[in-house]
Amino acid sequence: MNFQISGMSSMATRQILADLIGRYEERTKYRVVIHSMGGVEAARRIRAGEPSDVIILASNVMEQLEAEGHILFGSRAHFARSGIAMAVRSGAVQPSIDDEESVKQATLRARKVCYSTGPSGDHLRRLWQRWGILDLISERAVQAPAGVPVGTIIAQGEADLGFQQLSELLHAPGIDIVGPLPPEIQALTVFSAGLSSSSSQLRQAGDLVAYLASPEAEAVKRRHGMEPA
Known about the structure:
By secondary structure, the protein is an alpha/beta fold. It is 38% helix and 25% strand.
């Protein structure tokens, strides 16, 4: 392989990227190494000057990084979009989530509720505030540490319910996915890929971004719980 392309991504896209990058390496003979971590940590490392070629994060964060000069202007491409789902420990009774009120009641009945540090966690807190239960739920809410899947917390019995991007829950062992949030309270997060302004091999990195956003990658995204953006 003539080139090694490095990158950073949020945990939400790690399974999709692992699949796509394996295919891309076979086709191009490039070597691609993507480090997946919590989106907050990825943004911190990028702002601290850690070198990278490609960055894949939530679109709102990518816009901020581009405005700050960390993403090459005009290089961003929508990668995928993902909705939020609820999960319980394997074998546990699954609550109804047919509508907003049923999700609220399931949340209120739970002993512990787990949520993430990413966009899905931000959305959950806004919902709790809208429902007027933020203070009550905050006393029994468990925020998964950055980089730790919500599914891990649920599987260990440290929470009864968990909410996270479907793509992050889909392959987690020890949990059952109840289903996506109903449309009236669903929030779709769009993830984008772009070129780091610190990249020394922009052509090769640009080829990778184009591949990630191409129709060729769509089936893999759907298989891992996301939709093409």
